[in-house]
Automatic annotation (TrEMBL):
GO biological process, one term: proteolysis
Signal peptide: 1-18
InterPro entries the record matches: AB_hydrolase_fold, Pept_S9A_N, Peptidase_S9_cat, Peptidase_S9A, Prolyl_oligopep/macrocyclase
Keyword entries, A-Z: Hydrolase, Protease, Serine protease, Signal
Biased composition (Acidic residues): 23-33
Protein name, per record: S9 family peptidase
PANTHER family tied to this protein: PROLYL ENDOPEPTIDASE
Domain Peptidase S9 prolyl oligopeptidase catalytic per the UniProt entry, residue ranges: 529-732
PROSITE patterns xref list: PROKAR_LIPOPROTEIN
GO cellular component: cytosol
A Pfam family the protein falls into: Peptidase_S9
Chain positions covered by the region annotation Disordered: 21-45
Annotated source species: Marinicauda algicola
Length: 735
């Protein structure tokens, strides 16, 4: 299906024409076939002119960067009307929506918990609680089939009372009692949020308590009357990425403007954030994390009352604190580290530790201990601590295992914990005041199962599991590899009907950035809406992710990013060559950085795809650093205003700047959110606008609420799922 749909307003079209100043031609005149296969008419002159202006570095579409500008929102609403009109009119849509909603709102979901003060807390949404319930129970009750929950905060009631579209963003509670919390609430789902002090005992907000108005940033407790805060309320204390760079000490009963500065970074930083480290009933330690770039940080140790001079930790810029276990500060390394010249070198991907009190007393780096040194196909999947053990997920070739560590006079020792094989393993929750540790396991056809770790035998006891949301009988899972352009072997998983000999409709998903690992996962929605209807699903572990440690990520940074795109192209070509699918039946989907990935697939290899879905994408790579949080990602993508070479490379991959009016592109579905204050909706808006003027096959949907996930509640998530799978069925299954 390649239907051109026009949804430009008259005013928007005039803006484009005025910017381009090109003569009009009759866009309906049929011409002979061009050299581009499939083209049967000349592209509209106004679209060609607009595209030329964009290619020449002009910015005629900046009105779409006004997040809630009248013209931009008119464009979005009219685009939504057209797209929803087509997709929701499909007789399959209602069925898909209802199936997705049933799964998303089901009481059979696992209520994942965090442990605070011996109680197990959970945030829960369902059909009756759209905004959600923050609730708690006991361990004994939780281990039963029907836990008895005590509601601590009804967010639906609060939203109705206050007339706000509250979206839950979490709670930071003061140990060891955890009876005072700072709740983070977003109006509509944006990253900027309100922070309010809450009394758990009375289940109410504290009258005259701490309140931070809507902003990006964070808080952490020093004691019951003192917070460390970092806010972007003052533009003079806000980075170009939109995050705070000043950490302050705020005392109860004083105005926030009177908070004392503890540490100040620079406006050129990504941001600076406070942190509290504590293991069990041990002393609390306070830190400030100054992120100079997305991947490089300076860590500052602050005095107990945060009134002394900060001390810089002598650790690599590319490293991350993971936990405090006893006195040991546990760090993961994203670059190799030789702390002492001529001494031992610890490789990138290793996990190490040293005594934090010893460092605080001397200012010198103490002895470094190794917990884990990585193998060539390994990465760390997660770390959690109990009172007596540190648990670490170690991924081998994209599936998980679990190890339990203890620290003694001879350093770290470990024991393997027996886990299900060939599944993803995740730390679900741990409690550093007790021996409570929950672990989760899942696979493409294996529903999520939550296990409690037996502290004596270190065995896993199943606690809760998802139902089988789709019929997995006859569905096979296999892992293959494709050879990328530079010879690197790229693993990918195929989930498809057993014994399928003919090519079939296939959805390829990838991310490829920011050291984010994609592992096997159970999706009831994908299974019910796609697998059961004969669809094949492929998950590609391309470079840019963290599946094989920091080197796998760093291979695709900045001007090396084409490797990431070559990886996905190689997987797509292998799927076609091996007869899994055909180009007309192959769709590709990704979100955020994955939205950029799919945008590049659209412009670089349109011949490979029958459909492309680009969710909350980055698509204007010459202005990404000027939009919302975009400046924080320059260490990943490049610095277009500082490096001519990086700007030239970004120009070469930027989807918005590489549209060819003469090319026959596959159908494209762009989705974004007005409330997304991380990736600017203008990326998707501009691409949709340009392609529509060019007469290309494009659908656009902008959720007016929802933030970076493009969904403020479960019903909106179900709607997005139904729209996407309806689109895929129309393009890949209908022929």
């Amino acid at each position: 299906m390649r239907h051109a749909r026009r949804f430009l307003t008259a005013s928007a079209a005039l803006l484009a024409l005025a910017a381009c100043e090109q003569p009009e031609t009759d866009t309906e005149t049929e011409t002979a076939e061009t050299e581009q296969a499939g083209m049967t008419q000349d592209p509209p002159a106004e679209g060609v002119a607009l595209n030329t202006a964009i290619q020449n570095g002009e910015t005629p579409l900046t009105f779409l960067e006004e997040v809630e500008g009248e013209a931009a929102l008119t464009f979005a609403r009219e685009a939504n009307e057209k797209s929803l009109g087509r997709l929701q009119a499909d007789p399959r849509y209602d069925t898909l929506f209802n199936e997705a909603l049933e799964i998303l709102q089901s009481d059979a979901r696992i209520p994942y918990v965090s442990v605070r003060g011996g109680a197990l807390y959970n945030f829960w949404q369902d059909s009756e609680h759209t905004h959600g319930l923050w609730r708690r129970t006991t361990l004994e009750s939780y281990l039963t089939d029907s836990p008895q929950w005590e509601v601590v905060l009804d967010l639906d009631a609060l939203a109705e009372e206050e007339g706000r579209n509250w979206v839950w963003r979490g709670a930071d509670c003061l140990p060891p009692a955890y009876d005072r919390c700072i709740l983070t609430l977003s109006d509509g789902g944006s990253d900027a949020a309100v922070r309010r002090e809450f009394d758990v005992a009375t289940q109410s907000f504290v009258d005259g308590g701490f309140v931070v108005e809507e902003t990006k940033g964070s808080t952490t407790w020093i004691d019951e009357d003192t917070l460390m805060i970092a806010t972007a309320l003052d533009p003079a204390e806000t980075t170009s990425s939109g995050y705070p760079f000043v950490v302050k000490r705020w005392s109860r009963g004083t105005p926030i403007e009177a908070a004392e500065t503890i540490l100040s970074g620079d406006a050129s930083d990504v941001g600076v954030w406070p942190a509290r480290l504590q293991h069990g009933d041990g002393p609390a330690w306070f830190m400030a994390v100054e992120a100079e770039t997305f991947f490089e940080s300076t860590y500052w140790l602050l005095s107990g009352e945060t009134r002394g001079e900060p001390i810089r930790l002598p650790v690599p810029a590319k490293s991350s604190p993971q936990a405090l276990f006893g006195e040991q500060l546990v760090m993961s390394l994203e670059e190799s580290w030789t702390p002492v010249e001529g001494g031992e070198t610890y490789p990138a991907g290793a996990v190490v530790s040293f005594s934090l009190p010893e460092f605080a007393a001397t200012g010198e780096l103490p002895a470094v201990h190794v917990l884990h040194a990585p193998g060539p196909r390994q990465s760390i999947g997660g770390i959690g601590t109990t009172a007596d053990r540190l648990f670490m997920v170690i991924n081998e070739n994209v599936t998980g295992s679990l190890a339990a560590f203890t620290f003694g006079e001879d350093g770290w020792t470990s024991e393997a914990v027996e886990t299900p094989q060939n599944l993803a393993i995740n730390m679900a929750a741990t409690d550093d005041h007790s021996d409570i540790a929950f672990v989760q396991a899942e696979g493409f056809t294996t529903p999520d199962t939550l296990y409690l770790v037996d502290s004596e035998s270190l065995s896993l006891e199943p606690v809760k599991s998802l139902p089988h949301w789709f019929d997995a009988e006859g569905i096979t899972v296999e892992q293959r590899e494709a050879e990328s352009a530079d010879g690197t072997m790229i693993p990918y998983f195929i989930v498809r009907p057993e014994g399928q000999d003919e090519p079939g409709p296939t959805l390829l998903y990838a991310y490829g950035g920011f050291q984010v690992s994609l592992t096997p996962n159970y999706s009831g929605v994908a299974g019910k809406l796609w697998y059961e209807r004969g669809g094949t699903y492929v998950l590609a572990n391309i470079r840019g992710g963290g599946e094989f440690g920091p080197a796998w990520h760093q291979a695709g940074l900045r001007t090396n990013r084409q490797r990431i795109y070559d990886d996905l192209i190689a997987v797509a070509e292998a799927l076609i060559e091996d007869g899994i699918t055909t180009s007309d039946q192959l769709g590709v989907m990704g979100g955020s950085n994955g939205g950029l990935l799919t945008g590049v697939m659209y412009t670089q290899r349109p011949d490979l795809w029958g459909a492309v879905i680009s969710q909350v994408p980055l698509l204007d790579m010459l202005r990404f650093h000027l939009l919302l949080a975009g400046a924080s990602w320059q260490d990943e993508y490049g610095f277009p205003d500082q490096s001519p070479a990086e700007r030239d490379f970004l120009r070469s991959i930027s989807p918005l700047h590489n549209v060819d009016p003469e090319t026959d592109y596959p159908p494209l579905f762009l989705l974004t959110s007005t409330k997304d204050d991380r990736v600017h909706p203008a990326h998707a808006r501009k691409m949709a606008y340009l392609l529509e003027v060019l007469g290309k096959d494009v659908l656009y949907y902008e959720n007016i609420e929802g933030g970076h996930s493009a969904a403020a509640n479960l019903e909106e998530t179900a709607r997005r799922n139904a729209l996407e799978y309806t689109f895929l069925m129309q393009e890949l299954m209908d022929g």
